[in-house]
Amino acid sequence: MALYLDGKSLTAGELFHNHRFLIPQYQREYAWGKAEVEEFMRDLAGSLTEDYFIGLIILAGEEDEKEVVDGQQRLVTITLLAHHLVELALRSERHALVSRLDSTFLREIDYASDEERPRLRLSSAADNAALMRILNGETEDGPSESQREADPAPEVIDLADHNIAANLLEASNAIRSFLENDMGEDAFKRLGIWAEFLTNRLYIARFILPDVNAAYRTFETINARGKNLTTADLLKSYVLSEAPEGSEDEFYSRWLAIQTDLGEAKRNTLVQFIRHAFTLQRGYVLPRDLYDELTGRGTKNPALPGADVLDMLEREIDVYRQINNPELSGPSSDLSLGVFQVLSRLNVQGVRPILLAISHLPDAEEGYTQVLRLVVTRMTVGNLGTGAIDRRFGETAKRIAEVGSWREPMAELQHELMPDQDKFLQAVRDRSMNRNLLELLRASALTGKLAPIHTNTLHLVKPKSGDWGTADPQAVSRWVNTIGNTVFATVSRRPHGTSDWDTFLEDFLPHAVNAGEDIQRFRSYEKWDQHSVKREAEYIARKAAEVWF
């Protein structure tokens, strides 16, 4: 059967007058802030005397009220713009213009009941209430012109404690400020230009498809940016579209709670969390394949129902939020948080599915330390960040979840990836490493702990630009970033003037005492050269090996 598609280019006035719009809960939230709204308004203001096209929107459904599949940000912003034009028209006592804009963009009459219905509605009751409060003037800025006319003392409602409401309010305030600044000396004339442009010169391409699934397939085909840009929104859309009738608000609330639990994390962190949790059930999946794997599209595996996805995420979120940010409160012990902190500082994320799998076991702390041993020793001797290793981590996580024990899967992984002690010793002595790894290895050697907690600063004994004698510059370049040339101190900045060995011993070394350094060992070196660095590196390497093996 051919796919029915109703496509047409309409003015914004025709589009709003002919339709009512529903923003479904499985859509992304209204996300435009002040910057995006002001850019949109500048584009419109620069085109007021000509026809202007703002792109495509995709609608779904055969009822009068259409679900918005793509175009929410523009439709909501146009609604807010129309609202503020109405407010300015009231202020100018242009009552005919008020009536025309209101009936075209904001409300229509139900001829059967004689009740007014909004042209645009958010399906979340809380979100829609926030939008209606703004359109009715019930904001923290006080009552609007129209509301003061209807009610001399209306209730003022603070919307700032609700994320979506805060976005809507910020956008509304930005539009109002822009229009007030744009009106100029002849506000009456300028207002008419804006109203005529919005109604008759602003063009939108509109596609209507009979059902949401067909609309989303069209959206994915037309949107050249594809899934990589909208993975979080597509995942949310899938999960919430799976809600049984009558459970839409419950599913939406559960999804928002998961987003909120990740704190200030970015949208790609949410996608990463879903992928890592999904790994425990299905094994390693590439980020670009997550949506297809989860929904069973084009794969051998069946879809994971939306309710099961929510259950899976709620089961893992408490630990994952601490893995992602060890400073957050949650169920993890101090030792566990120490491991998470080290992995976070080293920017190691591929092992997170293993950590999730281990978190459900009674001996999780011991399992975490084995993961940390593997990661640190492997990073010390070579590269950890390859796709093959990430895949191996995913397979191990799935197996741990299946067998209910980390011991055998982790033993196999360590046998495959973990270096022997001699290679570790040699690498600690001789390799140049990034500062975070140098810091961890030296701190663990000095404290004897896998996840040392310290507030000191790692310094190079001889800085790269230092001039300490007649050392060969090529030799210096080889050992300057090795662990033998490092020292902890309680000061974050190197004391001024510690440019040679004598001043280092006199003015810098005292700051290393409270940082846990053995200053007598440093004083035993007659001068600081590559031979001294090698002696220091040998000492630290042996101490580190005692911790990590």
Briefly, what is this?
The chain has 549 residues and is α/β, with parallel strands linked by helices. It contains 26 helices and ten strands.
Account of the 3D structure:
The protein has 549 residues and is of the alpha/beta class. 58% of the residues lie in helices and 9% in strands. The protein is built from 26 helices and 10 strands. It has helices spanning 12-18, 34-45, 72-91, 95-106, 125-135, 145-150, 163-182, 187-200, 212-222, 226-241, 248-261, 267-282, 290-295, 306-324, 334-345, 352-359, 364-381, 387-403, 407-417, 421-430, 435-447, 473-479, 501-508, 510-513, 519-523, 530-548; strands at 6-11, 20-23, 52-60, 65-70, 107-110, 115-118, 120-122, 202-209, 457-460, 486-489. The strands form 3 sheets. A 6-stranded mixed beta sheet has the order 1-8-3-4-2-7, sandwiched between helices. The chain has a two-stranded antiparallel ribbon with strand order 5-6. A hairpin with a 4-residue loop joins β3 and β4. α12 packs across α18 (387-403) and α16 runs parallel beside α18. It is elongated, with a radius of gyration of 31 Å.
Range of strand content: 5-15%
DSSP summary, beta strand count: 10
Helix- and strand-based class?
A: alpha/beta
N-C termini distance: 66 Å
The low-confidence parts are: 146-161, 224-229
- Biggest sheet features: 6 strands, mixed
How many H/I helical runs?
Answer: 26
Shape: elongated
What portion of residues is helical?
55-70%
Mean pLDDT: 87
The radius of gyration is: 31 Å
Kindly report the spatial arrangement of strands forming the biggest sheet.
1-8-3-4-2-7
